[in-house]
Amino acid sequence: MKDFFRNNGGLILIAAILLALVTAVVSALLGGGANPLANLAGIVTTPIRNGINAVTSWAEERYNDTFEVEQMKEQLEQALQRVAELEAMERQYEAALQENERLRSFAELRPSSFEFDPESATVTARSTTNWDATLTISKGSSMGIEVDDVVVDQYWNLVGVVAEVGENWATVRTLVDAATELGGQIARTGGAAILEGDFALMGEGKLKLTYLPENTELISGDLVTTSGRGGVYPPGLAAGYVEEVRTDASGMNRYAVIVPQTDLGGLQQVFVIKDFEVVE
Amino acid sequence: MTRQDFLIKWGVYALALLPVWFCEVYVLNRFPVLGVIPMLLPLAAVCVAVLEGAAAGAGFGLLVGVLCDAAYFNADGTLTAGMCLVGIGAGALAQYVLRQNLLGCLLCSLAGLAFLDAGRILARLFAGEAGLPAMLSVAGREILWSMVFVFPVYALFRWVFRRVPKKTVL
User: Fold this and answer.
1) How far apart are CA A276 and CA A116, in angstroms?
2) CA distances from B2 to A3, A270, B13 (A)
């Protein structure tokens, strides 16, 4: 027994390689489903994640209460001013809506809307490496959550897409992750483009908008939403706003740096859109 | 060493791994420094390999690798083999080239972390997922910040090493 490791060093290495191969094959076969090992680890550590999340949330609340009162007062003042502006805009929209209804009636079109099936979940953990930007949430396949389901915050801002699902947990690839790619739309102009994660921007919590429509002048602050083209993701979810427009290394293509609308660092509760339907 | 001693020894090492794993996955990832979070699990594999030798390092590296593949997102099994190799390499370096002490552990940790990040960078370069400068920047900061934790991790496993039955390998 005492020389077990000495005599079996080579065997251990072979076992490691075989185990790695098995894990790789199982992961590939399961697609976005968590491999059995990761699923078990996720289930076993759920109480730990929940406990730590509760403690951290409590500590953050106390910190905010103590140190951020002045900042919150300022934010409240700005928010009230913004509400007043929005109320003024709402009155204009009301008129536009009525006109839209009249025109639809005239053209015999039914109003379009979306029906969602959201599932509320708590964010219990964050990225464990520097090579991806993910969140772990408290619901999994037992609640009907599937890979590629879209995740939003309470204001319907896009958070990300479910990338891996366990029994009672799921990993969400946030929209700033380098592997993110989905259709985007510039709200002001209606132009379509691609929302794409970028490794260099991921550390700053940003992403980029590529394949910009020709002859489109973007303005800092332009809102970018999901386009919904392809039917995989719902349209109209706020992804972020344009910070600046840059030219890529080749000097040929422009792209916009997008700051997410949601606060990825401070998220506590999210909603998974399990199913959606566009009703025309 | 009896079978019972053997099991107790490696059971204690596995227990010592728990706080390291807990700190990395649940605590330190909430407080990035220089925009990065440290890697502690590879340091644990290196520390045990430096103290116990190459073959034992391979076994413990295998355990750490399995834990990494279970805990990290998008695990594809490469960390299981990678950590095992890191364990063997660190153990052999400390046994035959360096010394089985803190300095040896620091150098082996640096080499081990560089090896793991080199693998990650190569994989992403082949997949065309990211540019080299951005990845080198992340890897550099990650290694730098992780190296700070060699001291507490080494102290923990040195403490365990002094208390468990000896002569498994040496």
Assistant:
1) 4
2) 11, 53, 17
Q: Would you call A132 and B27 a contact, using CB atoms and an 8 Å cutoff?
A: no
User: ipTM of the assembly?
Assistant: 0.76
Task: Evaluate if pTM is beyond 0.80.
Answer: no
Domains detected in chain A: 116-278 (2.40.10.350)
Q: What is the pLDDT of residues A210-267, one digit of tens each?
A: 988 887 788 888 889 888 776 677 888 888 999 988 888 777 888 899 999 888 888 8
Please tell me if residue B165 touches chain A, with a CB cutoff of 8 Å. no
Side chain identity at residue A154, one-letter code: Q
Q: Report residue A94 CA to chain centroid gap.
A: 31
Q: Do A6 and B22 touch (CB under 8 A)?
A: no
- Chain B residues 2-41 within an 8 A CB cutoff of chain A: 2-3, 6, 22, 24-27, 29-30, 35-37, 39
